Amino acid sequence: MDVKPFKVEVPDAVLENLQRRLADTRWPDEIPGAGWDYGSNLAYIRELVGYWRSGFDWRAQERLINTMSHYKATVAGMSIHFVHEKGTGPNPMPLVLTHGWPGTFFEMHKMTPLLTDPGSHGGDPADAFDVVVPSMPGYGFSDRPSQRGMHVLRTSDIWVELMHGLGYSRFGAHGGDWGASVTNYLGYAYPQNLIGIHTTSITRPTPYLGPGSTPLSEAEKTLLEQREAWVRAEGGYAHIQGTKPQTLAYGLNDSPAGLAAWIVEKYRTWSDCNGDVESRFSKDVLLTTVMIYWVTQTINSSTRLYYETQRHPWELKQGERVETPTGVAVFPAEISRPPREWAERSFNLQRWTEMPSGGHFAALEEPQRLVEDIRAFFRPLRG
Questions:
Q1: What is the mean pLDDT of each run of 10 residues along the chain (383 residues)?
Q2: Left, alpha or beta for 275 (phi > 0: left; psi -120 to 50: alpha)?
């Protein structure tokens, strides 16, 4: 596998074009007093775009991004971008971290130094990891798929090839959102390669619930009711991304204000922010995330993952489960909050942690708590 160093360098012309588009934003109307009831609040998105135009310094964020060690490698015929940071400790364990939507590799930037160099951040050097943070196909600086069928299970296959190419025949994995699906499938399909998997979501796989299965507990019944209610109230984005992503892309790929409104609303709704998105994410963090989608023009290819994955469901058959040792961190504002017994249907569960705060973007919201749980889960698996 040919691995080449990579540096994020957005051309000036792209930034100049962005400024013109921001200045020419044609704003929609809004029902007076609507707040966020109808979606992204007009006053907040105006404020955010105003900062984007006059206060946001992309070059400063670019310098921050480039403090990480970036590479590209051709894997399965695609150029895959990834961060690769070696650990500082007696025996670092290789660990791949996978983001989801609308996240990027940047989502892991707070966690990475804590994982690679615990001794410099109040931890034990024996807990060090070699960290690999890829951009999923169609996200960030990885290639956009040019053929049908690039779903999350195929991403797991690509990660195994990537990690082997980096010299890691066995490794650990962590992920949230789509990254959790990738991580969970790694544990299912590649138990010989996975030391353990740690996740913040067990939405996939769907456990076997047919004849002979353990009856649902009251907590599990509540979970299924909660999921149905969430889909009715919040699932519109997933339905359109899973059915007509191309139609959506014309607007989001053309309008930076539209792209920001589409993405930032999720950071507000899915986080533990009590309606104040900036209590969890600064404008710089939000806009850096949006910028990665904007400058790479990957909003279409990223949302297309919903279309592809919905056509490749992952449902366990009777007697099947993920046998790789599994740790789950449950955050109170996560989209789906399963009880422990739901996880035990599908996973070889070794650690279950219910966190006091945090939501869907745990790597940004609660990096210290998440890192401590990852360290604790993998500690007995080292050797």
A1: 97 98 98 98 98 98 98 97 98 98 98 98 97 98 97 97 98 98 98 98 96 97 97 97 98 98 98 98 98 98 98 96 98 96 98 98 98 98 91
A2: left
Question: What are the domain boundaries of the chain?
Answer: 3-26+37-381
Neighbours of 121 (CB within 10 A): 12
Strand partners, 96: 132, 173
Put residue 25 in one of left, alpha, beta given phi > 0 → left and psi -120 to 50 → alpha.
Answer: beta
Tell me the fold of 3-26+37-381.
Answer: Rossmann fold (3.40.50)
Name the DSSP letter for residue 143.
Answer: P
Counting beta carbons within 10 angstroms of the beta carbon of residue 240, is it exposed (0 to 12), middle (13 to 18) or buried (19 or more)?
middle
Decide if 128 contacts 94 (C-beta within 8 A): no
- Give the active site residues: 177, 306, 360
- Cα 169 to Cα 261: distance, rounded to the nearest angstrom: 41
List Cα–Cα distances, 355 to 175, 292, 369, in angstroms.
Answer: 16, 29, 8
Peptide bond into 28 cis (omega under 30): no
Q: What is the DSSP letter of 333?
A: B
How much is the pLDDT for 233? 96
* 352, burial (CB in 10 Å: exposed 0-12, middle 13-18, buried 19+): middle
Neighbouring C-alpha atoms within 13 Å toward the C-beta of 373: 26
Q: Which residues contact 77 (CB under 8 A, 6 or more apart)?
A: none
End-to-end alpha carbon distance in the chain: 27
- Strand pairing class (347-354; 322-330): parallel
- Strand 129-134 and strand 194-199: pairing? unpaired
